[in-house]
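Why predict the complex rather than its parts? Because the way molecules touch one another can change local conformation, and only a joint prediction can capture that. The input here totals 602 residues.
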Amino acid sequence: MAEINRDDVAHLARLAHIDMTDAELDRMAGELAVIVDSIKSVSEVAGDDVPATSHPIPLSNVFRDDVVGETLSNEEALLGAPDNADGRFKVPAILDGE
Amino acid sequence: MTAVTDEVLTFDEALAKYDPVLGFEVHVELNTKTKMFSSAPNAFGDVPNTNVTPVDLGLPGVLPVVNGVAVESAIKIGLALNCRIAEKCYFARKNYFYPDTPKNFQTSQFEDPIAYDGHIDIELADGTVFRVEIERAHMEEDAGKLTHMGGSTGRIQGAEFSLVDYNRAGVPLIEIVTKPIVGAGARAPELAKAYVAAIREIVKNLGVSDARMERGNVRCDANVSLKPKGQEKFGTRTETKNVNSLRAVEHAVTYEIQRHAAVLDSGTPILQETRHWHEDTRSTTSGRPKSDADDYRYFPEPDLVPVVTNEAWIEKLRAELPEPPAERRKRLQADWGYSDAEFRDVVNAGVMSSIEDTIAAGVSAPVARKWWMGEISRRAKLADVEPAELGVTPELIVELNALIESGKINDKLSRDVLDGVLAGEGTPAEVVEKRGLAVVSDDGPLLEAIDGALAAQPDVADKIRGGKVQAVGAIVGGVMKATRGQADAGRVRELILQRLGVEG
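Output of the joint prediction:
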């Protein structure tokens, strides 16, 4: 049975600030359930001896020297911004979303 | 939002009924040259949105790369906090939506912090030592800086829009989290302040952070809960955010203890929420309650590979650690033979290192203390600067002291000599020469002055003749006045007693 239901999708949508209609929630719940079920089949293959992994290549300690490199100019940084003022990104006031 | 004045109990009332439990999250900004995951400069006060790369702006297709120096700094902090260092740890994404991160997640660590299970011993003002257990210290990145515009007060309430500067976004942060701190009782506020001060001192001593609280290099979130006396179970806590001076930490903890006590006394449960600290009113106001938004949906950062440590690397870093501040203080106090009170005053005056240098330059510990705690501190206070900023070098003190010990000048004259040296009139010897400050060492003029002083205070002279030797000070004073301080007070005393035929 699917481990994701309509309430989960509504919760995630709220967290992600995505406005979804009832119809969309229903459809997405069904689609995500299928995806979750499909992914679950991985754990049927991977036994306890296979550690969970988030990276396909067994690398570690990929570090950068602490040397300053190229940066964007203020104009370049703001190029993609919908709005700006005083060299800064201008955004709607969001009450205490931290 | 209307301001509500919360009820509070007095601190003593609160402590009579409840035991406070504290917890701290201290964020330390590292002073690496570049950011945690990009090669943008880590610098304060630059033109907004110039210390940014596509990585810091979360532009599509970018890949972060970990700053190796920041990892070593994190390990050093962990070691200084007596933590265990993880053999293998990972970065994770902490997902949230707020304009201070353009990526919509903060790259942090979740289940596997680089350092864990540590402790530090905090020494309170009276010498009591209190052990604070460290839960973890993990690596993450700072957020951008928001300025709320259009509101009357510049606060978020009433703001029409916000302006964002991402220069700070991605600056390496180490978050240090304590385990719950119980048993501090009435000393909780003092301990809170001392704890944050100790963390600041440690990271500064390690050289891994500029540790300037006024610049936000060290920031503290203070958790407070109360439990009725005798109860084991912790109460509900509140987290007061961004208490960013040592004094504010002390005040915020005090206030929250008093406020919690009043809420609990009224039979109302404490709401688990964040609180905002207001320096002007020395109180907190409600931020936001724990909610859905705290579901950060952490998951492993797929763009970064694990950090793996080994014994050799950790021991190499351990060998690089400077002497811990607390141990250094203990060693210096023992070496110098200062009393606890004397040493505490030296530390509080911020002259410990200056005294250390001065002793190394060749004067005794009491002489070094006399100068730094006396004349130099006095001048610093007048000029409203730190004693070390006056330009008095250890070598200068050595020279002044040599002049005093040779009898060339006395303590009083040495201050004039110091004036001259600081005014650029040359070396101490040159100033003595130019200003004609040498002590009057010819007994002739001294005897004349002594006779004058004895004649001016015949009753005192009689007392001394009668055996009250301690009264001699008044005559010495008269002589010093007559010679405008240019006499050797010790010699004057000898001569007065000789003159009156009294044994010193």
